[in-house]
Amino acid sequence: MSQNQSRPQERILIKGAYLMTQDDKLGNLLGDVLVADGRILSIGRDLSDDRARVIDGTGSAVLPGFIDTHRHNWQGALRNLGPAWTYQEYRSQVQIGLGQYFRPADVYVGNLAADLMSLDSGVTTVRDESHISNSPEHSDAAIAAHQESGIRAVFDHGWPSTEAEQWQFGSDRTHPDDIRRIRNEVLFDDSARVTLNAMLRGPELSTPLVSEQDIRLARELGLRISMHVGLGEWGAQQQAVRQLEEAGLLASDMTFIHCCTSTDEELRMLAARGATASVAGALEVFMPGLGQPATNRLLAVGIRPSLSVDTETIVSGDMFGVMRATLAYQQLVLAGAAGPMDRTPGLPTFDAADLLSFATIEGARAAGIDDRTGSLTPGKEADLIMIRLDHTNLLPATDAAASIVAGGHAGNVALVVVAGDVLKEDGVLKGGDAVFEEAAASRDRLFHAAGLPLPA
Fold first, then answer.
1. CATH at residue 416
2. I need a surface site. Which of 18, 117, 146, 196 has the fewest CB within 10 A?
């Protein structure tokens, strides 16, 4: 279904749920949510509407849909390949080894598989870091998948995975110019469900001159910017954030991904400029070579980060695992067993309620869409999920936030709504069954094209 086709809209009234609104004025309450014309019409107690379909929220929590601010969706058909890979092994196997063989059809299937997995686990918005821009057709296929799936997507146009080594770590190539066509002809409406950002390499992956040219291009096109920084020892040496600050390029339209080995001084620079950050807690814990999650150090400078999956080739594509891994690393910090960047005494801490905030409203702020999603606020678009707290694995749910973070999984997500459209109900995702057969066929073709044996 194309972005311009209207999906059936219905009035929905969710009754008697525990509402975790992520709206500071509303807070948490036991009450009802009325959805009409794709938006949240009202939040309160004892709401009624004769035209609305009533959904029983008893024993459930309703909260904004999770927002993943950094996922390489094109790898959706390569799910769970290398949970023990290092960063270099991932780059060699996926970006360099397989990326060059992706056809547009493979990108479409990978993106669609990633979107459906996201929706099933309560992720209603994904910021797709798409460094598979091997041709205009590849980018168009990625966008088409987002439009088809029904998810809210921020498509972050990146660089190709052909000649992958020529596009990273000191590359003198400027950002692919096809981003102009996409901006002018495809994703020109910033109020649409699928919108455009620029995934730039920055001085850590390109050069200072290229970084400046790319950033000026993105700003000329009116696009927010995402950038990977603080990647292992290389990131510590390059100090990309410092370079951007000294060049006068650091600003509030930028989201910085990882920041694992960015210095505390660099993080203070981000905070001073109003920039946002994305922590991929599970990936950073699982994958040696990047460094450790910077969550506590970001909080120390006043930045409340968003959360992200990164790549499903290494970690599960749901936000529950990301929240748990991020929390687990904090506990290592508190035990004095953390990495060298996290040994400053007195670092601020976070709890389960904070993690839900990171996964919702902070994600919306990082993606620049908090005016229309990220909280259960009347007038915002209806992106929401309902999690059953009366399922066996969560009972007795003494503290809703703690129960969701510590024990939640996709099977507890009973309802998923994006812009008022019901995409999962009664625990069943609507449509998409054939996609996973197509994903397996895509994976097989890619391995064959690369001359690699399929994993046993």
1. 2.30.40.10
2. 18
pLDDT digits (tens, 9 = 90+) for 367-376: 999 999 999 9
Co-location of 280 and 416 in the same domain: no
Whether the CB-CB separation of 278 and 257 falls below 8 Å is answered with yes
Tens of pLDDT, residues 32-67: 999 999 999 999 999 999 999 999 999 999 999 999
- Measure the CA–CA gap between 53 and 35, rounded to whole angstroms: 10
Cβ of 320: how many Cβ atoms within 10 Å?
24
Please indicate, yes or no, whether residues 170 and 195 belong to a single structural domain of this protein.
yes
Q: Does one domain contain both 32 and 126?
A: no
CATH code for position 222: 3.20.20.140
User: Rounded to two decimals, what is the model's pTM?
Assistant: 0.96
Cβ–Cβ < 8 Å for 309, 359: no
Does residue 153 sit in the same domain as residue 297? Answer: yes
Residue 419 and residue 381 in contact, taking contact as beta carbons nearer than 8 Å: yes
DSSP single-letter state for residue 191: T
Residue 8 pLDDT more than 70? no
Q: Answer yes or no: are the C-beta atoms of 118 and 68 closer than 8 Å.
A: yes
Which residues in 172-192 are b (16+ Cβ under 10 Å) and which e? ebbbbebbeebbeebbeeeee
